[in-house]
Records
---
Amino acid sequence: MLPKICLLRKTGEFDRVYRQGRRLHGKGFSLIFAANAMEHNRLGISVQKKTGRAVDRNRIKRIIRESFRLHRDSFPVKSDIVLTVRPGFSLGSPADVLAAVTGLMQKTGQLD
């Protein structure tokens, strides 16, 4: 289970990342990240209602959280990260999410 200190939970935290963050766009999702003053990275997930039913949206969030929990070093370090999901997001496992995020970051030069 992912500890709550590793999650963005307040509106102000999300707003700060949206205002100050760097945006990377993938197929069906966007990754927005901004540096934080903590020793660890934190994750926030935003899924549009257009994506599907509540059951589908919650499944997507569970998959993204599990990918983050298992591979935190593959995400931007010492950052607050918001992963926004749009309709058309079709990744069904934590490994798929990890591959999409690392591929996006390597393509833009954020990950070596």
---
Amino acid sequence: MPKNFLMFASETSASAPIETSVEPTLSDRESLKILVIGSRRGVTSTIQNLHRLRFAEVREWSPLIPTANPGEVMSILSRYILAG
């Protein structure tokens, strides 16, 4: 017959450490870069749309950076995710 779960709880010591969640360390995280390339209007509009969708704050994106192509800019968002 299976033992009752509460029996195990009473068998543990009151001084036993309780496991708590710990913030991930840098080694637990992976860096991601999200890049938007296009016209100034297109990049700005996309960043604002992603903000409305609560994907990222506008201030989290880099300033608009000109590319080698005339009339084209880019902006980069860096994010960290848990690795593994």
---
Amino acid sequence: MEGPLVQIRPVPRLPPWLRLGTTHHESVRSLQRGLRGRRLHTVCESARCPNLHECFHRGAATFLLLGNLCTRGCGFCSVPKGSPGKREFALDPEEPDNVARMAAEMELRYVVLTSVNRDDLPDGGSAHFAETVRRIRRHLPAARIEVLTPDFQGDMEAVRRVLDAAPDVFNHNVETVPRLYRRVRPQAGYRRSLAVLRYAREYRPDVLVKSGLMAGLGETHAEVEALLAELRAAGVDVVTIGQYLQPSRRNLPVAEYVPPERFEAWREYGLSLGFKLVFSGPLVRSSYQAEVVEHAVREARC
């Protein structure tokens, strides 16, 4: 006798606007060789970004600082997790200089730095982050630098330490709407992230403040609009909105593939709130085409 049928939730088909056909394997392998030779990581690889082939082919990458193991377990993220105390958690003292030398070798005019969360470190890794910015300034004095930081558990001294290194853009992602934080970012806090962004705006009025979020995790249209309003009230200048894509079976499933017209509606609404730029689209990521975004804002200021 046959057993009862098991109901399996169907996986939504990837819509046409999210299908990428172009690959650049040799460009990817070439850049990866250079990165591994200096013991460096990128969030492009660790987070399985869908734009990796495009960005690596044009010589762009977002450096992942503080190693490749994160102390948090966010539901959306595929960056490897680990327990503090393991040998792999030891900070590489040569990483700041290696990042700077790699950026110079790539002849980058715009350098984007992010990091894993290191809640095990007293300063959250902020001194290491700041030192990397300073090393890049020495090797590439004309380059512009964007930092995409963790929340440092709400330690504003750590935030200030990074800002004192004088990045051109300060980015911290809220990632999702407040209602979904417990499921999506259980070790983070929405109000804490807003406080980090507000502090960055108040402490360094000259720095471009940026944040980003993912769509397709179960949020409503109204919740996204409310989030955008709060980001603008916190002093955020630029916001990025992209489609969440499940990077592995261990991560949260996609609740919805948001159609392009809704991304456009959020863009228009954001601009009506006074954002300098809203980069909104299915394949947008927080550091995707970051140089183009920053340049567009700078040109608009002139």
---
Amino acid sequence: MRHPEWIKVKSAGAHATKKILRHHGVSTVCEEARCPNQGKCFSDSTATFMILGDRCTRNCSFCAVESSKPLPPDPREPERVAAAAAALGLKYAVITSVTRDDLPDGGAGQFAETIQAVRGKGPSIRIEVLTPDFKGDAESLKKVLDARPDVFNHNVETVPRLYPAVRSQADYRTSVNVLTNAKRLRPEIRTKSGLMLGLGESETEILSVMKDLRDAGCDFLTIGQYLRPGKTNIPVFEYVRPEVFEEYRIKGLEMGFAAVASSPLTRSSMDAGEMFRAIKNAK
């Protein structure tokens, strides 16, 4: 399916940002997942760091990240990420990872060490983490939260009915429980989740997921259009019109989300700092 006129994807640029990332030997989900916004974000000297390597132990049909046996975690990675964040002059850093089901803690320790390293280089940097589900393990989740990120993000991605086709190795209820438990363990930390549209979901299903997220205490919500990153990924079922995204944004605010970003090119980490600062400034 051709992209409709309301989806204009800019080519990746910002060679200065890429040069800094390569110099420090760090990966970004912007590049690995072929995010359509990487040109914009790199031009603004922002990036979402991807830790724990670039090989995932799961094989979600929507994702472009390579699925294969990962390498052992690099103990120097947290310091490299911190150095890159400092070199980019970031005020807000997002840290995500591949899923590491091969590790006893799912990589939670590496998240905690990276948070601490970034804070060591820049105490004023706000930090958001976008984590996998850690198979629902409470101790792994606690390990990340004890490092005190400013925002804890875990994406449910799609509606429960589509999990077998979209996230066959994940479980919807486990993902919602991760967010519920995060808010229970650290109520002062903002929680966040995201949805992709255009995979065949219905309005009723979307609103049901939004309600589940609010019941889990989720503060922030992002909703974007699924764009097929490659021929081996699940096809787009529908391109949802911008006005429909706006309707979901309004409904999300009415449900009680503190902030909702909803548009065809919205992505989980795009303008994350602006979303956080808007809420802080509104207090």
